Amino acid sequence: xxxxxxxxxxxxxxxxxxxxxxxxxGGPTVLCYHIVESxxxxxxxxxxxxxxxxxxxxxxxxxxxxPLKWAYExxxxxxxxxxxxxxxxxxxxxxxxAYTEVFPEMKRRHFPFTLFIYPNIVGKTSRAxxxxxxxxxxxxxxxxxxxxxxxxFLTRRRHLNVGDKQYADWLAxxxxxxxxxxxxxxxxxxxxxxxxxxxxxxxxxxxxxxSGYLGALTCDYGRVKxxxxxxxxxxxxxxxxxxxxxxxxxxxxxxxPLLATAPQLNQALDPGVTPITVSAKIPNYKxxxxxxxxxxxxxxxxxxxxFAYDPHDGxxxxxxxxxxxxxxxxxxxxxxxxxxxxxxxxxLFKVPEPAPPPAALPATAxxxxxxxxxxxxxxxxxxxPVAGGGSGTHASAADLHMPVxxxxxx
Length: 410
What we know:
Immunoglobulin-like
């Protein structure tokens, strides 16, 4: 393994083990993804179902997905305010999953998103996007921005073996070459850079500004706040080891107690039976804004179901008419009246899978009845009279296999 690979591995280990800071109050949260589903990468991959669950969570629980440009304008004071619970969604590198997994989900949810592409990967492997795919996404509205030209460490301290002029010329090619090629392929301006590996310092930030970029994004944890340095905008790196509870926590949610949740995880439910009533009670309902209360089912393919909230006792209820199966997650949220803090609670219940139909019996040949045996032929001629009485043409009892009836003696 060369020194650059060792440095990269150490950097990703830091990302995996560094504790997340609590989300700051105010300002948008910028999410940073890399790979969805494939290729497999223990550091930056996230599963398809996990990614879709996170996007559904943003869609149904009151978050507002905004363009990256809005976050920059907010930091610079050019935009006075943003929608509550604003989130920016970004993807680094240019993996094929940006087109096969991310793009369909973003279109379905009508979410704006930013792709930070380094041109040197485009079309170079079957796991990378192509220029045709990038153009299609850009034409739809995806924001295509720079991730340098070849994804190296960019800071001067990483390149002490070269002279200042050689480093400056190389850095200009990485910054300006990427920006110009992306602009040529998409026909749109490229104004933002994501630092490869999150590696930056104030010298590099100054060089980025001189190269024509408005802002740059790091892998430092935190929100973009009003007055934030636009060349050091923070992000939350998301990968598969971040579970659903952690994801919600990083977005600013605090726990909320619930009572009388139904159905319970161990509650026996009949498969395929509808409707199912989902309900809970917020015990401290007087401390939450009644207009902020929400209830949703987090099924990956589920539709948004209306719910009812009673501000007089804190009960929240929904009736699900569609058939459910498997494990289901319910989430309840509200805002604290005094602090405005987001509060959330979640629980699981399970609907058994319908029993499979009985297996069909294998086809068999029809049964054939054996042919009847030929009838017995009685001997021709007169039949001898039965001894002991009578005369005429009667068969003997022995011939008919019947008991012989004897005439009583006189």
